[in-house]
Amino acid sequence: MQSSTTAAPPVARAARRRLPLHWLGLAPFLIFAVLFLILPTMHIVLGAFRTPEGSFTLENLRGLNTDQIKAAYLISIKISLASALLGCAIGFAVAAAIVLGGLPKFIRGPLLTFSGVASNFAGVPLAFAFLATIGPVGLITVYLKTQMGIDLRLLGFNLLSFWGLTLTYLFFQIPLMILIITPALDGLKKEWREAASMLGASGLQYWRMVALPILFPSLLGTLALLFANAFGAVATAIALTGSSMNIVPILLFAQIRGDVLGNPHLGYALAFGMIVITGIANGIYIWLRARSERWLK
């Protein structure tokens, strides 16, 4: 008796077994992510729970419960929160001006291009730029003192301080906010504003009762992302302040650089704490971003 199913031709079976070629374009990214993101992260996480001999321990995490380390986490959180709040406020104002404020259209392209570059400008170059500009002997600092009689140090400003580091972080926080919030502002439909005007709402009432509630998930999500971005900025903090500030990146560097007093596994625990904090912030951003996109569709 003949079977009711017909065997597929050899050519069709070979086509099903063949790997789709469009996946090859993703291969370089996957290899890069595994080698330089996933594997180092797993090494840090495992190192936080290991002794130098390789056995399991929780002593490294208990070592975080010291006054110095807790103070470092607190200062790092404050700096990250301050730069995130200021970056959100200033970046939102700039993005609203170019999208809704009636500025010439030719400004938008160069501004977004600059924002894309500046949002990734960090580390030693950024620290050097600020030191050369408004550092203790920076160009603007010396000019104000010699030509205008204004001494920034006497006025209480110090680049190697809480507000100095916060100001430095704003250089990449504001452009990042502009890049993220601009599409959300573009998603505000003109019909919503026209409907609010027809119902007698003023511009302030439109923003308070329509626009801001819609943008609120995007704003909160971007705030969380900027917080994570600042909290994980290791190279900029080390290059700018050295060891003059008690923040987590500097303590982490001191533990893993190989000095006789360093404890690499305590450094892994410090890094693990940073991963947890930034992971929570990024998770909040992804969740709120998804909610915002549903509103703007």
From TrEMBL:
- Lineage of the source organism? Bacteria, Pseudomonadati, Pseudomonadota, Alphaproteobacteria, Rhodobacterales
List the subcellular locations.
Cell membrane
ABC transmembrane type-1 domain location is 73-285
Q: Which domain of life is it from?
A: Bacteria
Stretches that traverse the bilayer: 26-50, 71-101, 121-144, 156-185, 205-227, 234-254, 266-288
Keywords linked to the UniProt accession: Cell membrane, Membrane, Transmembrane, Transmembrane helix, Transport
Q: What is this protein called?
A: Binding-protein-dependent transport systems inner membrane component
Family classification: Belongs to the binding-protein-dependent transport system permease family. CysTW subfamily.
Q: Does the keyword Kinase apply?
A: no
CDD domains linked to this entry: TM_PBP2
Cite a GO CC annotation: plasma membrane
Q: Does the keyword Transmembrane helix apply?
A: yes
Instruction: Give membrane topology per the record.
Output: Multi-pass membrane protein
InterPro entries in the cross-refs:
MetI-like, MetI-like_sf
